[in-house]
Amino acid sequence: MEAILKSSKLLNVCYEIRGPVPERARQMEEDGHRIIKLNIGNLATFGFDAPEEVVQDVIRNLPNAAGYVDSKGLFQARKAVMHYTQEKKIADVTVDDIYIGNGASELIVMAMQGLLNNGDEVLVPAPDYPLWTAAVSLAGGKPRHYICDESNGWLPALDDIRAKITERTKAIVIINPNNPTGALYPDDVLKELVEIARQHQLIVYADEIYDKVLYDGATHTSIASLADDLLFVTFNGLSKNYRACGYRAGWMVVSGNKKIARDYIDGLNILSTMRLCANVPAQYAIQTALGGYQSINDLVAPGGRLARQRDIAYDFLTSVPGISCVKPKAALYMFPKLDPKIYPVTDDQQLMLELLQEEKVLLVQGTGFNWPTPDHFRLVFLPNADDLDVALGRLDRFFAAYRKR
Ligand code: PLP
């Protein structure tokens, strides 16, 4: 019998956050090693509990949650999201414009499936959260990566965006706050992005899943609040702001110039009905989460657990010879740079495997975020201060040994 091959649609699809290096870590764990995992933004596994009222709401409603619900989601959940969009000053959103999904992830894939014909292009940041590149490719599209500029706080390089637009460019993806860089885009940059989208009639996909994970008193502007003549699709959910990744509850909001997008919206509706509905128990938590006490604010405030861990990781990384790092203003990650003169890495996946083997620390290589050169890695600063110290000490030893090679 002939070998069974995967679909050619998967040729350019990869997701390194759970790729070969984490797979090796899993095997090592099976062999009895204890691995410090700094590869994934899974808050609950680091003792960041979801708000108690949110958990209780899911438990209380479980007996009512055995049936399918509307494909776009529970009315009360969408109503709560609608109020949230008003807080974020996104105009003219009705309950009908909101789709609840099994995490933002499902909706990102759906949004791309509904839009792209083979060969259509989408501007995606580099580095990116790699689901975006994967979702564009899986839908037959071509991701065109625009550079975010490390020397400018990882803000999108507007000239690079302009240079990469062709007649096949349909949309631009903006991840703000950004994973993996921790950048938070100021309003003037967002306005310029809107202007570019306007000039080239691009749909704006705004991934704002970290919009409450903001340090140093920063505030977040939803790009969809800045114009009503373009089509915006904004993504958010319970995974990060409410530390409930495992509930798989996210949402997508269509706003702006919905009139020109009737056919696309019809496509989104078809796709959402095809999978009947998203996980119902978690949808009950959305109203409570959005309307309840915003405990994330305590974690990111000066002295809060997340803010302290960011500072520990940043102070450490910037003290290692040959490593530099932009201080994150938001989210849960850092994307440090290895000076190629000191660390002449040619294969960053191999580097991460060596780190794992030698020091039992799991990180993800920069190229896993579609960064073009093997000179970055992403670190998740979620372990508590003691564990973080241990992990950073091991990194220190690894890089000191590398410098002596
Ligand atoms: N978007 C970004 C930027 C993320 O970092 C993540 C998860 O890490 C997601 C989307 C996926 O979120 P969800 O858990 O809602 O599927």
From TrEMBL:
Cofactor(s) named in the record: pyridoxal 5'-phosphate
InterPro entries tied to this protein: Ala_Aminotransferase (IPR051926), Aminotransferase_I/II_large (IPR004839), PyrdxlP-dep_Trfase (IPR015424), PyrdxlP-dep_Trfase_major (IPR015421), PyrdxlP-dep_Trfase_small (IPR015422)
EC number: 2.6.1.2
Enzyme class, first EC level, given as a word: transferase
An MF annotation (GO) of this entry: L-alanine:2-oxoglutarate aminotransferase activity
Catalytic reaction annotation: L-alanine + 2-oxoglutarate = pyruvate + L-glutamate
Pfam families: Aminotran_1_2
Listed name of the protein: Glutamate-pyruvate aminotransferase AlaA
Organism: Andreprevotia lacus DSM 23236
Source lineage: Bacteria, Pseudomonadati, Pseudomonadota, Betaproteobacteria, Neisseriales
